[in-house]
Amino acid sequence: MAQPIISSYPLPMFMLSPGGIDHNKRSDKAMSVALVPVTTNTNKQAVMPKNIVLDPGWFDGNRTKFEDWWRGMRLFLKSNRVMETDNRITVILACLRGGVVGIYVQKKLDELDKELGTQDWEEFVKEIKTMFSNKTKAADAE
Q1: DSSP state, 17?
Q2: Statement: the pTM of the whole predicted model exceeds 0.70
Q3: With contact defined as beta carbons under 8 Å apart, do 76 and 56 qualify?
Q4: If phi over 0 gives left and psi between -120 and 50 gives alpha, with beta otherwise, what is residue 86?
Q5: DSSP 3-state assignment of 38?
Q6: pLDDT in tens, 60-78
Q7: Each residue's pLDDT tens digit, 89-116
Q8: Contact criterion met (CB below 8 Å) for 14 and 25
Q9: How many CA atoms lie within 13 A of 49 on its CB side?
């Protein structure tokens, strides 16, 4: 049996908690990373990290934090290969918590329950950016 080949590129550091990865804690110490085997074209198994992008965490409606959270969410979706529009929207809605964003999620869930078929990704992105992006930052840039 062939020995696994481990890539030497740097991986993000995170803390493991009893329940799994705690994305809110980071460490400079080397930690173990969840690895999954990947078959290469030479029929040897390479070990690749399961996910190298951390979960961006919750968005609570703080407009000054939206751009960073949104960038992190887009990277998280791409890294986890969440490509279907309905799944992308569901993941994003699941990460919105409290206050105004909680009301927005409930409204959106009610809409999704009534609609049949796939949602429009571009429309959703435009809507969420309009609702939560920092408008004063955009005005200052002009």
Answers
A1: E
A2: no
A3: yes
A4: alpha
A5: strand
A6: 999 999 999 999 999 999 9
A7: 999 999 999 999 999 999 999 988 887 7
A8: yes
A9: 16
Q: Distance (Å, rounded) from C-alpha 67 to C-alpha 56?
A: 11
The amino acid sitting at 63 is R
Coil/strand/helix, residue 118: coil
Domain boundaries, the chain: 5-49, 63-141
The residue written with tokens 């960038």 in the block is 71
- Nearest to residue 120, comparing CAs of 96, 85, 94? 85
* Tokens, residue 89: 């929207």
Which conformational region is residue 70 in: left (phi greater than 0), alpha (psi within -120 to 50 degrees), or beta? alpha
Q: What is the amino acid identity at position 4?
A: P
- Distance CA(17)–CA(137), nearest Å, equals 37
Tokens of 74: 């887009």
φ, ψ dihedrals at 49, nearest 5°: -65, 140
- Tokens representing 86 are 């309905």
Within the chain, what is the greatest distance between any pair of CA atoms? 62
